[in-house]
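lol ok so funny story. i was supposed to be doing the assay writeup but got distracted and ended up predicting the structure for this chain instead. priorities right. anyway since i did it might as well share w the group, maybe its usefull for someone
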Amino acid sequence: MEKRNELYRGKAKTVYTTDDPHYLVMHYRDDVSAFDGVKLAKLDLKGETNNRINAHVMGVLESAGVKTHFVRLLNERESLVKAMKMLPIECVVRNVCAGSMAKRYGIDEGTRLPEPIFEFFLKSDALHDPLCNDDHIRVLGWASADEIGQMKTLTHRVNAVLKPLFAGAGIDLVDYKLEFGHPLDDPQGPLVLGDEFTPDGCRLWDTKSGEKLDKDRFRRDLGEVIERYREVAIRIGAPL
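and the output, tada:
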């Protein structure tokens, strides 16, 4: 598989085309950002750490029957993935109240929820990823009713797999976001999990101490960002 041209450059990853239009190379950079790109930095080892964590988590999900775009690791910073047509929607599951949910509803951060809460957000940096509902998505044509149902089902299935994975490592999976799409080689088929699952896109707290092990360490100037990311990797069994 030959890596070719840069296709897309995001906040922390660069995606490249290959000689096969159905596959892409995802390159994890050392960049880290917060507040829609207002706060920026480079952190040594971040790219390779997230690449390894994502590969491990995607492998766990695949073994549990959740289809993903991940194919294989290529090197320390790069993975081969299926080319996808992504839906412009972020699916968020909250197992513990934190972040924007705590602010939005005036609930104390750390409040444990009796069951997971699912939320949809429109993926748009310019609009600061606004909260949306099923009707917005369906009527405005961002996804079909069937795709909405698939996103909910798949996200809850991911939660059922990953909560125990992190709990077994002494980590609370507080909340996280997922993105879905259709592989280019099966555009009418079922949705597949895309993007990534790393500490950049979820909240992870040590079960005993409550210490934050995710990107909130960068957002809130807590320090030791990569040290905690790598601790997460070791605790869930992702080889570094």
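The CA atoms of residues 10 and 64 lie 29 Å apart. The radius of gyration is 17 Å.
back to the writeup now i swear
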